[in-house]
Every structure is written in structure tokens, then in C-alpha cells.
Automatic annotation (TrEMBL):
Native source species: Lentzea miocenica
Key word Nucleotide-binding present: no
InterPro entries: TIR_dom, Toll_tir_struct_dom_sf
Protein name: Toll/interleukin-1 receptor domain-containing protein
Keywords: Receptor
Transmembrane segments: none
Amino acid sequence: MAIFVSYSSSDGGPAASAVVEALRARGFDVLWDGDLTIIHPLSIPAWMESAVRDRTVLVIVSDDYLKALLSNDFVERRGVRYEAGLVRHKIYHHGGAHGCAVLPVVPPEVDANALPSVLQQLVIHRFDPSTRNGEEDLVRSLGVLEVGNGGGAMYPESEGVHRTRMMLAGLEACPPSSAQAYQLAHDLVEHGEGDLELARAFDSVVGVAKAHGDVRLVSRLSEVCLKTLSSTLPLKGEGALKAKVLVSGQAWHLLREHRFSQAASVAEEGTQIAKKYRDLYTAARGQRAHARVFLHMATEALPYDREFYLRNCEHLLILATTLFRSISGPTSEEVGVCASLNAEKQLLRYEMTGERAELTAAWERSQVAEGLLTPGTEPYQWLTVLQARLSLAARKYNEGKEFVTDVIATADFPEVVARSRQVRADLLLATREKAEALRDLLDAEEQFRELGCDYAAATCWWTIAKIDSTKLVSFRLSTADVLRLEDLAPDPRDRRLAVLEHEHRSAKRLGRRSAPDWACLVDRVQHE
């Protein structure tokens, strides 16, 4: 296996020398700065570039190396700064969350928890140059990495680990929206309990599950990974894995299951864990997820509670945006997603106050988001749905229909398509096209239910019931029935179950049907 040892000669030389000696004794092909006096390359920068590009890189962590990695202002030693930049580039352009050919090696005097997020996301190895403690683990990881790159392993991996790695490699080679990736994600989750490899590749697997809008799969994946992490001891540098699962997995599915308090608690816990391990990217995502939960809570809260939730949403969104800007710059996709969420917040303020200035601000922020997001991506499609909702608020119905019709025709994301149909139904109802609106609502309800978004499905179902309940059951709900049910049951899932319960009971009665006792029916379905 070809290896390049990257280090700062000022304070990382002793550790680098020990690592090179140990690996060469094991038969590895190792290249490092100590070879320059023998090789005499025509261009040292070009030599660095080819070595980092073509070989597995061991980063010998030291104070000077970290300074070079974190800041372009570190000019004391241009060589280490340039080399660290090449390594950072190699990490950033690695495809997927599995098998990155950069391994940080941390000497005893360096605190592994103080490493920057660019290294924390990798598998970190301890190595003591004086005792060679950690050598076996490092050699084992290099052997496993060689298997992933098509070579022969020095240490055979278990059958289960090999199977998982092969499935992950297949999943990461497919587009997330493909049927093959979706099937592999299902298979990995089904057999993944206790498998730390699955937890390490959580980002890749959850990305596939989300691309297909499968709430149940995200829930099961999160459950399996959290259980695995609680029962096994992750390697150094993997402490932030739990934060990723909480923020990108558990908070995501709890929000769609309408379990807002739990989603808020989980997002906050994930953010705190990410901060503890200095995973700033996950911390920023946790703050944004928490802000999104508060926005949903504000949408459904009583008027005197809405301002509290909106202020919390706004505060967290500012924190997340600031952190994303510091990590990836002011024009990154993540900043664009924050801008889109900001626009959604302004739309809610307009719906609360009716002030046109709020609607204007929402439009402006949506345009900022549109300039930052990449067309065709899921965040961009969600933004288009939001722009249709803004058109509805501005009474630009035809423009709004064009937005969502385009999404329905082109999007590869089932949840976005279902939501687009629901929004288009609202636009059609505004122009009194009831028949077409009902078709969209029926399609949206079916699609939401298949995805496991039961609350969204019940919302569509109830909208249909209010327009024409005979599309769903054998009797017609009166205006009085609708008002009574909405008063008794704030949750549309309970209203739906109460109506279906009445339908079920009426079918068993002989003779004339009795008037429904909605209070009794709602109480029954809420407590069964």
C-alpha cells in the first residue's frame, strides 16, 4: 500500500519518523519529507500534489499542523501550510462518508477532542512514538482501507463487516434517488443492529432514505444506530456520530411525525454533543433543525404563544447561519437553506399580522435563497413549493400553480411532490376549481400515507372531508359536524379516526342511522 506521511517538521518530526519506521518495517511503501534528499524532485509543490493525490495520507497531528490546516494566515512555514491545504482538499472531495484515504495520527500530548471538524469526521488513531502503542490499530485500519480500494488486506475482516462495506460501497456508487440505493439502504438497516460500520456511514444511508421520503426507514435507521453507539465503543474521533444521528435522523422523523417537543429536545441534545466534540457543521445543522421545529410549533400554537416560538426560531436561525458562513462561506448551499427557512418564517408572520411588509420581506428572502441553492436539488424544490405558497398569499394564483406544477413534473423526491400537490390544491380551491383540487388532495393523501407522514396525510384527508366527505365515506359531513370535530380534536388524525369509527359503527346497524355522538367517538379513538 502506498502511503504519504504529512506533518510539520518543526514539531511533528519525531512522531512522523517513528510512524515511517514502523510502517516500512511492516512492508508498506511510505513516502515522506525525509526522502527529499534522495529523490531531489524538480518541483517540491508538484511532488506534494502527486503524493497527496495518489497515496493514502497519514496526517501527523501537531500544533503547527493544526494552525496550517485551519488558517491561510499561518505563514511561518509555507510548506506545511500548502501541504495541509492539499490534504484538506482531498478530504472535501472524498465521495461519501466511507473509506476516506486520510487518517489522522494523534500523539499522546495532543487532545483528540480539540481537533477541528475537518479531522473529527475521520477515523482518528492514537500513536505513541516512544512506545509504539497504537501501531497495531493503525496497521489494521490501513489494511482494511486497502480492501476498500481493491487491494489485499493484511488482516482479514469479518464476514459481516465485509458485507456491510460492500453494500455501503454499492449504495454510495448509486444516485440517492435510485431504486438500487433504496433497496441497499433497507437491507443495511434490516441487518445493521450492532454494526458500527453502519453508524459510521449514517450520512450516506440517511441521505438515501430522505431522498425517498421514507419516514419509517429514517426512524428505524436512527434507532439502530443509536442502539449500536450506546452498546459499542467508537474509535477516537467518532464521539460526534451520535450527534449526527440525533440531528439528521431522529429530529427529522420526529418532526414529520408531529412530535414537536421530542424533536426540539433531540435537536438541542444533538447540537450540544456536536459542540462538545467541536463538530461545528453538525452543530449548525442542529441549530437549524431546532429552528425549524420552533417554526412548526409557532404555526400551530395559540396566538399568544406564537411570538415566543418565532423569537426562538429567529435566534437559532441567526446562530446557524453565522456558523455556516464561518465554515463554508456566505454563498454556500447551507446558507441558502437557512435563507429559505427565514422566508418561511416571514410568511408565517404575514399570516399572523396581514402586514404586506412581511410578505415583501418573505419574497426578498426567498429570492436570496434561490440565488444560493442549486436547481434540481431537494432544497431548491422545497424553496419552489414555498414560492408557490407565497404566490397564494399574494393572490397570484396562476403563478403559484406554475411553480408547483413544475415541481410535480420534474422532482425526484416523493415528499416534495406530495406537498406540491397539497399546495396546488389550495391554489385550485382559491380559484374554485374544486374537482381538480380534490384529485390533487386524494393523490397527496395517498402519497403521504405511503411515506409514513401520517399527520400530513390526515391533513389532506380532512380538507377533502370538509369539501365533500362522500369521496371518503358513505355519508356527508355537515358544517356543524365539521365545526364540532375541529373543536373536539385539534389533531386531524383523531378527526379522521372518529369519522371512520362512525362509518364502521353505522355499517353494523340495521335500519336508520343515528346522529353521531362526536364527543364519544373522539374520546374513544384518542384512548384506544
